[in-house]
Amino acid sequence: MDTVYTVYEAKRSSEVAPGVGKLTDLAVIRDSKIFFADAEFFKALEKAHKEKPALSTAEQSHIKEALDECSKKPSTN
Asked: Using the 8-state DSSP alphabet, how is residue 22 labeled?
C-alpha cells in the first residue's frame, strides 16, 4: 500500500509543474492481473492525501480495502 500511495503522492506533487494536468490514471498489478483504479479507490487515496507521504496503519488499511474492492471488478483489458 505504501508504494501505491507514494506513486499517487508523487503524481499529485507533480501537478504544480507546467504541462502536468490533474487528470490521473492509475493501474496496479496484483496477482498477475492489471487493475485500474476506480473512483472509490481514488477517494481512498485522496482521503489519505497529505503534504508528507507517510501513511498511518488505519490509512494503509483503508487503501488496501479500496484496492481489494477495485481488484474484484472485471478488468476492461
From this structure: S
Distance CA 4, CA 51 (A): 16
Instruction: Give residues with Cβ within 8 angstroms of 24, minimum separation 6.
Output: 8, 11, 42
Whether 17 is in a domain gets the answer yes
Interatomic CA distance for residues 76 and 26, integer angstroms? 13
For 30-73, write each residue's pLDDT tens digit.
889 999 999 999 999 988 886 555 677 888 888 889 988 888 87
CB-CB contact of 45 with 8 (8 Å): yes
Residue 77 located in a structural domain: no
Whole-number Å distance between alpha carbons of 47 and 59: 8
Please count the structural domains in the chain: 1
- In this prediction the pTM is 0.62
Instruction: Give the distance from CA 60 to its chain's centroid.
Output: 11
